């Protein structure tokens, strides 16, 4: 089995700097391997404050481990070239717990969908871009004509979260790191969001 995303003896400690001796050990000596051979869903379960969000941020390369290292396709995240990091950013996508933090309130929700298409040159024309966005929204149970052209505050929490799932779908990632993706939406919408992720898997 070939590995896709790996943690090797990762420890993450917060605090303990020059002016403070207080330290918080968020993760300690954790090793984990996600393989490429078959599509799978891996769940990390733990109480609040047990380090789940820290783990997600480490796997996304948003923070660095205090000890150990993280690799993607056998390459250490800390030593990736610019091109390798761009590929990593496309192929490993997050879905965060609170989608409102991801949206810029001054931009319509279209913006969060158009930026990755433009950044990774996924569409050859505006028509192709519109088609891709429409397909992704419909896959998560949203109607493009009722969603696009609106500001984040004009949508419900469930709609905003489904837009973030749609954004991840647009990029056809190899890994989706979902940090409690349905904890802030109504129970009736949880099944829709989880079904979207399961269908992509």
Folded structure, characterized:
It is a single chain. By secondary structure, the chain is of the alpha+beta class. The protein folds into two domains: 1-80, Rossmann fold (3-Layer(aba) Sandwich), CATH 3.40.50.300; 82-201, Rossmann fold, CATH 3.40.50. 37% of the residues lie in helices and 21% in strands. The chain contains seven helices and six strands. The protein has helices at 52-59, 82-91, 110-119, 126-139, 144-147, 157-170, 187-200, and strands at 3-15, 23-35, 67-72, 75-76, 92-95, 175-178. The strands form two sheets. A four-stranded antiparallel beta sheet has the order 2-1-3-4, with helices on one face. Strands 5-6 form a two-stranded parallel ribbon.
Q: What's the quick description here?
A:
This protein has helices spanning 52-59, 82-91, 110-119, 126-139, 144-147, 157-170, 187-200; strands at 3-15, 23-35, 67-72, 75-76, 92-95, 175-178.
